[in-house]
Amino acid sequence: MSDNLVTITVDEQKITAPAGAFLLPVCLENDIYIPHLCFLEGMDDPPASCRLCLVEIAGESGPVASCRYRVREGLEVKTNSDEILRLRQLAFRLLVSTNDGSCRTCIANHSCDLQKIAKYLHQPLKTKRLRHIDRDYPALIDNHPFLVYEPKKCVLCGRCVYVCGQLEKGYKLDFAQRGMDSIVSLFGSELDPASLECETCLACAGVCPVGAMSSKKKWRSFIAELGLN
Ligand code: SF4
Ligand code: SF4
Ligand code: FES
To answer: For residue range 135-192, what is the model confidence (pLDDT) as tens digits?
Structure first.
C-alpha cells in the first residue's frame, strides 16, 4: 500500500483514502451518505457550523464533525448510531427554527438540500418541538443587479461567502451581525460598478444548498412561471 493511503473502517466497511483527507468527503465518495450543509469540497479550514455531519470515532471522547476530521490509519467510524441520529436531528431542528420559507414558492423546491436532509433525518421542515424564531428581516433583498437574496430561507451555512472569497475579485459577500441575527450582506447594489462583475459569475447562487441566494434572471422567470410577479 502507498505511504499516502490509509485504511479506515466506516460502519464496518473498509475504505482506502488519502492520509489527511477530511472524513466527510471520503465517506461521500464511498457512497456513505452523511448529511451536511456548510462543507464544500476544497475548503482548507471548514467552518463546521451546521453540526449535521457528526459521527462517532473510536477513542474520541464525544461526537466529532466529520467535515473537519482528518483520516488516519486504523480509524474506526460509526455514522449511524442512535445517539448520532438524535444529535443530528437536534442540529436540524435548530437550523429550521429560523426558517420561514415556503417550499411551494421556492426556486429550490425538489432540489433543496434541506428537503433532502429533512427526509433523511425523518424531521419536518417546520419544527414544532422548538420555539420558532422569527428573524426581523425582509423576505427579499433584490437591490443587486444580478442576485436575489431571501434571508428567511438562509440557513447561514456560509458557502456563498466562502466561494466569493476564493475569487480573485471576491469578497463581495460577508456576514453581517452575529449568531441567530446573522444575515448575508451583499456589498454592491445596482449603483455599485463592482457588482457588475457578478453577471458572469453567480458562483454564490450555484453553491447555495437552499433557495436563499439566486440568480435574479432565473428567479424572475421562476416567479413569472408561478404567476406571482
Ligand atoms: S456572483 Fe460571484 S462575485 Fe458576485 S457575489 Fe456571487 S460569488 Fe461573489
Ligand atoms: S445564502 Fe445560501 S449559501 Fe449563503 S449562507 Fe445562506 S443558505 Fe448558505
Ligand atoms: S458539514 Fe460538518 S458541520 Fe456542517
So the answer is: 678 889 988 889 999 998 999 999 999 999 999 877 789 888 776 678 898 875 556 6
For ligand 2, atom 6, which residue shows the shortest CA distance? 154
Domains, the chain = 5-80 (3.10.20.740), 105-226 (3.30.70.20)
| Interval between CA 113 and ligand 3 midpoint (Å) | 13
Q: Which atom of ligand 3 is nearest to the CA of 67?
A: 2
Between 46 and 169, the higher pLDDT residue: 46
How many CB atoms lie under 10 A from the CB of residue 215? 20
What pTM was estimated for this model as a whole? Answer: 0.91
CB 149 within 8 A of CB 159: no
